[in-house]
Amino acid sequence: MAKDIVLVTGGAGYIGSVLVKKLLEKGEKVRVVDKLYFGDSALADIRGKIELKAGDVRQFDPDLLDGVKCVMHLGSLSNDPTAEFDPKANKEINFEGTMRVAEACKRKGVKKFTFASSCAIYGFHVDDIADEDHSTNPQSEYSQSKLDAENGLRSLVSAAFCPVMLRQATVFGFSNRMRWDLVANTMTKDAFASDRIHVYCAGDNWRPLVDVNDVAEAHIAMMQAPDDKVKGQVFNLVHKNYRILELGHWIAEIIKPKQKIEVNVLFGSKESRSYRVAGDKISQVTGFEPKVTVEDAVRSIWQVLHSGRYTDFTNPIYYNIEWMKLLVDMEQKLKLIGKVF
Ligand SMILES: NC(=O)c1ccc[n+]([C@@H]2O[C@H](COP(=O)([O-])OP(=O)(O)OC[C@H]3O[C@@H](n4cnc5c(N)ncnc54)[C@H](O)[C@@H]3O)[C@@H](O)[C@H]2O)c1
Fold first, then answer.
1. Ligand 1 center from residue 128 Cα (angstroms)
2. By C-alpha distance, which of 318, 143, 116, 82 is closest to 235?
3. Residues in the chain where the model's pLDDT stays below 50
4. What are the residues whose beta carbons fall under 8 Å from the beta carbon of 176, sequence distance 6 or more?
5. Is 116 near ligand 1, meaning CB less than 6 Å away?
6. Which of 7, 78, 275 to mutate to test the pocket of ligand 1 (most atoms within 8 A of CB)?
7. Does residue 43 have its Cβ closer than 6 Å to ligand 1?
């Protein structure tokens, strides 16, 4: 059987839906496996061009790898609050689910495996800029599960299995499965909805950022990179490091000619995460470099906002933790009432 399919776990998500579209544009055949926590509407315009399988990586069926040449593994609980909400599910999905998919790949001869890890693994340190050799300091169940998965994947490296770990910075930019809970997206949305950008904890914490299109392109670049250059390697994926206060003012400046924006700085408890990362390794080793600036992304989000596509910013589906809480609540209620009608 020809192996010509790219399987994307989490392909209906914020990053995954952008990635799937790009893969199609590059002429790839795509299979998506996703639990569809947020539905499948992000894939609506390409629905007829992909194979979409509703499924959970915790029960990943190895037959899904038939005809697959590369797995891009993005399916997971995707932030700290969701992981804290259900640490057991977080460990089962983010660590054990990753290992289940990876072990199936190794058994079935699917060599290339790209993994959506996170710069959150670096946790808290402010005196230096972390390259991939820097010590890690996970501050949450989420980042610990990503680190455990990276280590697990590294232990599987062999002539037949080539995992590549992308430590993605906090992502920004527009996706059909929009997340308004990511810092640059939140600030842009708040500026639009209330003429005000809120900066919490005085905004003196550092955060590395990268655009969603660059993240998608990076997974594709890792698929295309020679195995001997990337096998078992960890790469930071960052466009630029920002202090959150600086980011707030910068986004206000981008928008200012169109709308006057107040930057509202709130003081109080310290952020537990603050880190800067170096992104040189990926370009030195593979030639790939993130290109999209916050300015580009804010401008395109701004256009979408003005198109009237989004009016209800309070809808929990845009905020991962709010949505997961709602789903659990509904699950409990449905147990009591059975079918709704
Ligand atoms: N967005 C960011 O800033 C960021 C930063 C670093 C790393 N990451 C990682 O990138 C990946 C994608 O993040 P995103 O922002 O697109 O998040 P997202 O929540 O929008 O998408 C995650 C997708 O995975 C699916 N999923 C969750 N659990 C699953 C399971 N058990 N089985 C199958 N599918 C499952 C969800 O239904 C969803 O479609 C995640 O692994 C996340 O941890 C994201």
1. 29
2. 116
3. none
4. 17, 18, 41, 42, 43, 44, 45
5. yes
6. 78
7. no
Can you read off the two tokens belonging to residue 127?
């005196």
Query: Whose CA is closest to 77, among 135, 131, 14, 129?
Result: 14
Ligand 1, atom 21, residue with closest C-alpha: 13
Identify the pLDDT of residue 272: 66
Ligand 1 center–CA 29 separation, angstroms: 21
Distance CA 115, CA 9 (A): 10
pLDDT of 309 = 93
User: Ligand 1 pocket check: which of 31, 52, 74, 179 to mutate, most ligand atoms within 8 Å of Cβ?
Assistant: 74
Determine the pLDDT at residue 74. 98
pLDDT of residue 70: 98
Architecture of domain 5-320: 3-Layer(aba) Sandwich (3.40)
CB-ligand 1 contact for 100 (6 Å cutoff): no
Q: Any idea what DSSP says for residue 173?
A: S
Neighbours of 132 (CB within 10 A): 17
Cα(252) to ligand 1 centroid in Å equals 28
| Secondary structure class of 31 (helix, strand, coil) | strand
What pLDDT does residue 2 have? 93
C-alpha distances in Å from residue 236, one per residue of 9, 14, 288: 21, 19, 11
